[in-house]
Design a protein that fits this description.
The protein is α+β, with helices and mostly antiparallel strands. It has three domains: about 100 residues, Methyltransferase, Cobalt-precorrin-4 Transmethylase, Domain 2 (2-Layer Sandwich); about 160 residues, 2-Layer Sandwich (Heat Shock Protein 90); about 60 residues, Orthogonal Bundle (Arc Repressor Mutant, subunit A). About 35% of the residues lie in helices and about 20% in strands. It has 14 helices and 17 strands. Strands 9-8-12-13-15-14 form a six-stranded mixed beta sheet, covered by helices on one side. A four-stranded mixed beta sheet has the order 1-2-4-3. The chain has a three-stranded antiparallel beta sheet with strand order 5-6-7. The two termini are about 45 Å apart.
């Protein structure tokens, strides 16, 4: 038996362990053993009889929960087992809230605490009522634009007679039966969302060689429907350059990054972000673009899950549902897959998705592993040529490596293994059918 999400061992009782009981009750329940050391060895507890009498009442009086407190013995050593059930209401100790995460007990503060309390109440953040909001705070034109978009997407039909804005918002569950406006109504259709939620904007920054060298910046405000397109407009006019080519007499301008992928990232960030703290940030570097939003992934998903078909768990389901009905996003968890596909279609490597700084970051790389970059790496010329081949052709196989670079199988295997270890390439498939692709994970800017 190991210490884990629902098991904790302590050699002797201390009153601070009421925090552990609170944490278990706020999570999935668990067991706290008194008289067992960190190695899982029973060391015994001398005052077990006193604990059996006092602990049930103390837990009830201090935490408001009922726990089983059981006596056990092994090799003439006595120890105590405290069985804590999961509670649907939040359990505090001395005014603070705790939760079990893995094998640790964590104190809940700020936005995390707010999310926890709302979840226990069965309410999402975007469903909370804004008591000062009214129809005067709603941009009627934004609602009309949404109507056209929703009708075009065939996900929500509006007739020409549907001119009552409040009726439309009620239909979208953005106003409750008593006429109270929810946070989502203001964020989606408000004239000035920042008057109700000051971090509800997007920051854009152009940086030099380091993240501390800020060269230029902008802030994009507006409602949630406008923000993604406004950001793309600013990026297009002020920050991005385009390559020029011709097909016959037709001039073709190709942007550095796929706009469809950026828009999808921004829409996902708007629907999944935590709104009480930081703004969404768009950081532009010479070789990459990073979009970050505060708010970690739901516990059901990992960053690897995002690369395949997965369920959707929006942090702000009302906002996500209206986005879906307006034709802006899908409801099947395909957003990240679409981002990856758009980058590949644009000739770029798969974007790098990671959790950092309490949020989720998506990085699109422009031209990684170019000649200048590769010259700094301890790679042989075969490996550099192989990387260039993958960039031009999409992938390479062991057979192609041998043929194109004229090397034996053993050398091919050694070269490829080194590139895999450096995470410069990744493999897909098995056996002779294995393909090797560029992997952004090994790129260090």
């Amino acid at each position: 038996m190991l210490e884990k999400q629902n098991i904790e061992w302590k050699e002797s009782w201390r009153n601070e362990y009421f925090e552990w009981i609170s944490a278990f009750a706020n999570a999935e329940g668990g067991k706290l053993f008194i008289g067992i050391n960190d190695k899982g060895e029973v060391v015994g507890v001398d005052d077990y009889e006193k604990l059996l009498v006092n602990l049930p009442n103390q837990i009830r009086d201090l935490l408001g929960v009922i726990c089983e407190v059981n006596h056990h013995s092994k090799d003439d050593l006595n120890y105590i087992e405290i069985v804590i059930n999961a509670y649907s209401v939040p359990i505090s100790y001395k005014g603070k809230y705790y939760i079990r995460s893995g094998s640790t007990t964590q104190t809940l503060n700020g936005a995390t605490l707010n999310d926890f309390l709302l979840k226990k109440a069965g309410v999402n953040w975007d469903e909370v009522i804004e008591p000062k909001a009214s129809i005067k705070d709603i941009d009627l034109n934004a609602v009309e634009v949404f109507k056209k978009s929703a009708t075009s997407s065939n996900r929500l039909f509006f007739s020409k007679s549907d001119t009552d804005t409040e009726a439309i918002l009620k239909n979208l569950r953005l106003i409750d039966n008593d006429g109270n406006y929810k946070r989502a109504a203001i964020l989606l259709f408000g004239k000035d969302p920042l008057a109700f939620c000051t971090p509800a904007f997007i920051k854009i920054g152009k940086f030099g060689d380091t993240g501390s060298e800020l060269l230029n910046q902008d802030e994009v405000e507006g409602n949630a429907f406008e923000q993604a397109d406004k950001v793309l407009e600013v990026l297009d006019k002020k920050y991005f350059t385009k390559s020029i080519s011709y097909e016959g007499n037709q001039r073709i301008e190709t942007p550095e990054y796929p706009y469809a992928a950026i828009r999808e990232i921004l829409l996902n960030a708007i629907a999944h972000r935590v709104y009480e703290t930081s703004a969404i940030t768009v950081r532009i570097f010479e070789d990459r673009l990073e979009i970050w939003n505060i708010g970690e992934l739901p516990e059901q998903l990992s960053t690897e899950d995002l690369k395949t078909t997965h369920n959707s768990y929006p942090r702000n389901p009302l906002i996500a549902q209206v986005f879906y009905k307006g034709g802006l996003i899908e409801s099947w968890g395909r957003g990240t897959i679409k981002i990856i596909e758009e980058c590949k279609r644009h000739g770029l490597s798969e974007p790098h998705i990671e959790e950092k700084g309490g949020g989720v970051s998506v990085t699109i790389f422009k031209d990684i592993y170019n000649d200048k970059y590769l010259s700094k790496l301890d790679l042989n010329e075969r490996q550099k040529n192989a990387i260039q081949y993958i960039k031009e052709n999409g992938f390479i196989t062991s057979g192609l490596y041998q043929d194109k670079l004229d090397v034996p199988k053993s050398t091919t295997r050694r070269d490829i293994d080194e590139l895999l270890e450096l995470k410069i390439i990744k493999s897909e498939g098995i056996g002779k059918a294995t393909k090797y692709f560029i992997c952004a994970e090994g790129y260090r800017s």
